[in-house]
Design goal:
3 domains, Tyrosyl-Transfer RNA Synthetase, 3-stranded antiparallel β-sheet, binds tryptophan, binds adenosine-5'-diphosphate, 3-stranded parallel β-sheet, Rossmann fold, 15 helices, alpha/beta, single chain
Length: 423
């Protein structure tokens, strides 16, 4: 059973605050708050707690519950997801409700086709994870899509588990976010077929990603060609509004939008939600060790969870120009600096930039600074990952729970779609 524990506190509060808990999902039918009244203000002072203990039901869509206290520990919900926030006492409840109602549904998928790298992290994961606080998020592991590269069955299973572990370690909150394996919600294949029947072949043949894959020697099979249709089904099945992706997926989002519009034109207005891509332009392409786009396929990656000598030696291999040690260097055209920028504060960036400009610093020093920044940046996540690795059953339970929640929503869409197409 999913539950919210040690939910946190409003920083800087010296007295009682008000807490709002809400759920935007259709599925929520009842909730239970088991207040373990250990409230403490952030100044360490014990304050009187007024957290309600007992059922908060029925919860509607979206459901709101307001309670008071300075922090909350041991809060459990019979159904989830739930969102919570602390406010100063006396807040305007209606304004909070309006803010929560305007939350958009965000969905993204990642293929378990290799070990996750910092290109994945800064390209999409970081942004997706940050959205959990304010939005209704669906994140899944695209294991059907990974089959297009024909992995060994045991690798597919193992990598799917590793990606789940990585996402959870990076801060995915399985209570707030619906986190699941694509193949656990079979409705996606039915929708994919229905969309296939609306999809002109030319639309798929024009996709860069398909042409690139053929150029890289992959066999021209139906799975590879139909890849964007399945992706459209992933997105449309959950009425997604926003889809955070890397720049390379932009065209696939255009196919999704095209198919949603065709479907609505053919079968009825507003049957499917037309989604928007969300692409972070400033980190659109994270460079790899060789300066090309970092990618599993180019063998130029820095893993998120790399450790020891092997990972340090990767940093030392990053390609730079041959400016001599004593000469000034151009930070803006350096792969090492481009990566450093992703992890360092503005002051740290400025400091390193000055050292580039001044000369007398070799690229080895910059690489060492980058390596140290990386080790520090991912430290907490690395520790979280180690703990999770000791409890693989818990990771599986999270995925199963996510699939059950996703399925409920998928079924609502499919009822609408099947009725519209006459099935
Ligand atoms: P890879 O190129 O290593 O096979 P994927 O295609 O599985 O990576 O990408 C998963 C997600 O991460 C996608 O949304 C993709 O756009 C993003 N991504 C991958 N590599 C990079 C990169 N170097 N820079 C920015 N985003 C990236
Ligand atoms: N094609 C995406 C990639 O390779 C993964 C993916 C599959 C996806 N289905 C999706 C991303 C739906 C966003 C939404 O990165």
């Amino acid at each position: 059973m999913p539950f919210l524990q040690g939910a946190g506190s409003k920083g800087g509060a010296t007295g009682p605050v008000e807490m709002c808990i809400w759920s935007p999902n259709h599925e929520l039918s009842g909730g239970m708050i088991l207040g373990e009244d250990k409230c403490q203000s952030s100044s360490g002072m014990e304050v009187q707690t007024e957290i309600t203990t007992g059922p908060v039901a029925p919860l509607f869509k979206p459901a709101f519950f307001f309670g008071t206290g300075s922090s909350l520990s041991g809060c459990q919900f019979v159904e989830s997801p739930v969102y919570y926030k602390f406010y100063d006492k006396g807040v305007n409840h209606q304004a909070i409700q309006e803010e929560a109602m305007s939350a958009k549904r965000v969905l993204t998928g990642i293929q378990p086709s290799g070990i996750l790298h910092i290109g994945n992290y800064f390209g999409t994961m970081r942004q997706s994870l940050a959205m959990q606080q304010e939005h209704d998020c669906f994140y899944f592991i695209a294991n059907y899509h990974a089959m297009t590269s024909m992995p060994e069955p045991k690798h597919l299973k193992e990598r799917t588990f590793q990606v789940a572990l990585d996402f959870l370690a990076c801060g995915l909150d399985p209570v707030k976010t619906i986190f699941f394996r694509q193949s656990d919600v079979s409705e996606v294949q039915v929708l994919s077929w229905i969309l296939s029947c609306l999809c002109p072949l030319g639309l798929l043949e024009r996709c860069h990603s398909y042409k690139d894959k053929l150029a890289h020697g992959l066999e021209a099979n139906h799975g590879l060609l139909a890849y964007p249709v399945l992706m459209a089904a992933d997105i449309l099945l959950y009425d997604s509004n926003l889809v955070p992706v890397g720049k390379d997926q932009k065209q696939h989002l255009e196919v999704t939008r095209d198919l949603a519009i065709r479907f609505n034109n053919r079968y009825g207005e507003n049957l499917l939600v037309v989604p928007e891509p969300l692409i972070q332009e400033e980190v659109a392409v994270v460079p790899g060790l060789d300066g090309q786009k970092m990618s599993k396929s180019y063998d130029n990656t820095i893993e998120i969870f790399g450790e020891g000598k092997a990972i340090r030696s990767k940093f030392m291999r990053i390609v730079t120009d041959s400016t001599p040690l004593e000469d000034p260097k151009d930070a803006d055209h350096c792969n090492v600096f481009a990566l450093y920028k992703l992890m360092a504060t503005a002051e740290e960036q400025q400091e390193l930039r000055e050292r580039y400009k001044a000369g007398g610093m070799g690229y080895g020093h910059a690489k060492q600074a980058l390596f140290e920044k990386y080790s520090e940046y991912f430290k907490e996540m690395r520790e979280r990952r180690k703990k999770l690795l000791e409890k693989p059953g818990e990771v599986e339970d999270i995925l199963q729970d996510g699939a059950a929640r996703a399925r409920k929503i998928a079924r609502v869409t499919m009822e609408r779609v099947l009725a519209a197409v006459g099935l």
